[in-house]
Amino acid sequence: MRHRTRIACTAALLLTLTSAPAATASTATGPTHVDGRLPSGATYMMDVPAVWNGTVLLFSHGYTSGPANPAQDAPDEATKSLLLQGGYALAGSSYATTGWAVTDAVPDQLATLKAFTTRFGPASRTLAWGRSYGGLVTTAIAERHPDEIDGSLSLCGLVQGGVANWNNTLDPAFALKTLLGSDVPLVNLPSQEAATDAANTLTAKVDSAQSTAGGRARIALAAALHNIPVWNAPTQTRPAASDWDAQQANQYDAVKGLLKIAAFNRRQEAETRAGGNMSWNTGVDYARLLGESSVRKEVTALYKKAGLSLTADLAALDRAPRITADRNAVAWMSRTSSFTGELAKPQLSVHTIGDPLVPVQTESALRRAVTAAGSGPLLRQAYVDNAGHCTFSPAEQLAALHALEDRVTTGHWQGTDPTSLNSRATAADPSTPTRYVRYRPTPYLRPYDLAHPADRR
C-alpha cells in the first residue's frame, strides 16, 4: 500500500485562505507580482508573466535559521528572470517557521499552490522543485501529495531523509570528539547558546590539530565518515589525485563549516522539534564505514605519513561510549522527514559532485530507497562537475527543469544524459560553461529509509 501519510494540511486551512489578509499585486511593465500571507502566518510570493505558458513552478527554499524568513519563488534572481522570460509562473512560501520546519513547509507550500489557483486559475502543469533542505520538502510533497503535482526536481537536496542526515552528521563530530580529546556534548543540547559553545570548543580543537601531521590525519578520518569531498568550494584549487595534503587542507575548511552550521546549532533546533535526540551510533562499525568512504585512500596515506596507527584510532572509536537515540524522536523524524522511495510522478534529482554539506552520496541513498520501492523508472539523477553546495548555474537549473518537463509531456525520460543536459543548458544561456558529467557516487554511509525497515544502520 502506498505510504500516504499527510503532513497536516487541513481543509479548514485551505478554506480560510479567502479570509487571510489580502494579497497585494504589482504589474509595472512586466510580470504580475503578488505578495500575500497564509493563515499559518507564512508569507508567499508569486510571479506570473504577461504571457503564461500554463506551467507553475512551486519552489521550496532551503534551510533558514532566522530571524529573517522571506518567501522565495525561485533559487536566484538570474534563474528567475530566465524562467519568467520563458513564460513560467513562479510561486513559493516562506514556511510559517524557520529551521527544520518540514511540518510547516509542506502544508504551507500546498496552501500557496491553492492560493495561486484562486488568484490565477488552474495551471495546465505543476512542477515542484527545491534546493538543499527545499529538496527534502519537495521530495516529501512528491511522495505524500503526488496528486497535487505532475513532477518534481530536487537540486542538491537532502534526499537521504532526516534520520539519515542526522546520523551521518553525528559521525564526524563523534570521531573528532573522541580522537582530539574533547568532552563536548554532541546531542541533547539544551539551548542554542550551549550548541554554539560546543561548536566553538570542538572547532578550536580542530584548529589546534591542523598544526600537526597526526591531527591532520584525524581530521581527514572525520571528514571521510561524512564523505566530505577533497574539492568542496569554488574558491579552492582542485587538488591532484594523490596530493593528500592539498586534499586534507580543503577538507579542513569544510569540517569546520560542518561543525559551525549543522552539527550543533541546527541539530539543537531539530532536537527541539523532535522532542529529543534523533540519531545514534550504537552498533556502528567505523572501520567498515571508512572502507566504503569515497576518500579512504587519502586517510590511509595521511596516517602513514604521520606515522600514526589508523587501526588504533579505529579501535579507539570502537571503545568510546556510544550515543543512543530517543525512540520517540526517531519516530518523529522518520514520520515527518524520511522517505519510502515510492514515487507516483517522475522525479529528477541533481547534485554537484563536490558538495561538502549535503554530500553527493545522498543520491545513492535516494536510489536505494526508490529501487527497493519499485519506483526506479520514475527517477533520474544527474551530476554537475563543480565544487560547493548548490553551485549550479541558472542554465544548468533550466536544463534540468526542461528535462523533467519532457518526461511529463512524453511519458518517457529522454535527454537526461550529460551531453543532452549540457545542450539544454547552452540553449538556455550560451555564455554558461557546460558541466554535466557522468558520475556514480559511492554508497551513503548511514542510510535510513522507510523502504528498508530491517536495515536501518
Percent of residues in beta strands? 5-15%
- Listing every helix as H and every strand as E from the N terminus to the C terminus, the arrangement reads HEEEEHEHEHEHHHHHHHHEHEHHE
Distance between the termini: 24 Å
Helix content: 40-55%
Count every helix, treating DSSP H or I runs of 4 or more residues as helices: 15
Count of strand segments? 10
* Tally of discrete structural domains: 2
Characterize the largest beta sheet: strand count, sense, and whether it forms a barrel: 10 strands, mixed
Overall pLDDT confidence: 93
Structural class: alpha/beta
* Low-confidence blocks of residues: 1-22
Strand arrangement within the widest β-sheet reads: 1-2-3-5-4-6-7-8-9-10
CATH third-tier fold name of the largest domain: Rossmann fold
CATH architectural grouping of the largest domain:
3-Layer(aba) Sandwich
Q: For the record, what CATH class of the largest domain applies?
A: Alpha Beta
- What is the molecular shape? globular
Radius of gyration: 22 Å
The CATH homologous superfamily of the largest domain is called Alpha/Beta hydrolase fold, catalytic domain
Protein name: Aromatic ring-opening dioxygenase LigA
Keywords: Dioxygenase, Oxidoreductase, Signal
GO molecular function, one term: dioxygenase activity
Biased composition (Polar residues): 411-434
